[in-house]
Amino acid sequence: MSNNFIDSEEFSKIDFTKANIKKGEYDNCTFLNCNFDSIHASNIQFVECEFIDCNFSNTIVKNTSFKDVTFKNCKMIGLKFNECNPFLLQFSFKDCQLNFSSFYQLKIPNTKFINCNLEEVDFTETQINNAIFENCDLKNAVFDQTNLENSDFRTAFNFIIQPNQNKLKNAKFSRNSVDGLLTEFKITIE
Questions:
Q1: How far apart are CA 167 and CA 68, in angstroms?
Q2: What pTM does this model have?
């Protein structure tokens, strides 16, 4: 890996499907309206970076580091976050499309998802305790052997979480959404 070190730069309207992204470490950088669609963004370090209005759909992030990274209004369909570098992995998502993405087996406590579409996202065996799912659509998202302790689902919707297959101690749910915890029992709630 080359030793490019990029600090506090702003990248605006760059189509990385045409201009290759430099390998290296990006510290405190902002990416505005950039296209990473289906590119190889592997072995890159993003530290304290912000991505706004970017397209990350199907981007390859094998061994990519996301350390304290914020995504806002990004399209991130089918992203395999489970292939990222897990060391110091920390990110948050606001107004993002994350459908069909995978967080399989990651340790990502305290992650915030705000106004996100998380349809068919895989959270199998993920440690995502203390997470916030604020106003998120979790239709067909997979929770299996997932640690969701102390997580907040009060404004989340369309989720199905089986309490006997996940850790839910002190997780928060609203009365309106409690049916998503009882689906497996095939009972009617009116």
A1: 25
A2: 0.93
- Max Cα distance, the chain (Å): 60
Range of the domain at 83: 1-92
pLDDT of 187? 66
Matching residue, tokens 């404004």: 155
Give the CATH number, domain containing residue 178.
2.160.20.80
Same domain, 78 and 112: no
Q: How many domains does the chain have?
A: 2
Mean pLDDT calculated for residue range 158-180: 90
Contact 85/107 with Cβ under 8 angstroms? Answer: no
User: 12-19: long-range contacts (C-beta < 8 A, 24 or more apart)?
Assistant: 16/41
- For 115-150, the pLDDT digits (tens) are 999 999 999 999 999 999 999 999 999 999 999 999
- The string of DSSP letters for 64-107 reads -EEEEEEEES-B-TT-BGGGS--TT-EEEEES-B-TT-B-TT-B
Are both 88 and 124 inside the same structural domain? no
- What separation, in Å, do the N-terminal and C-terminal C-alpha atoms of the chain show? 58
Mean pLDDT of 158-163: 94
* Sequence-separated (6 or more) residues with CB below 8 Å from residue 84: 61, 62, 63, 64, 65, 66, 106
Q: Say what the pLDDT of residue 57 is.
A: 95
8 Å CB contact between 88 and 109: no
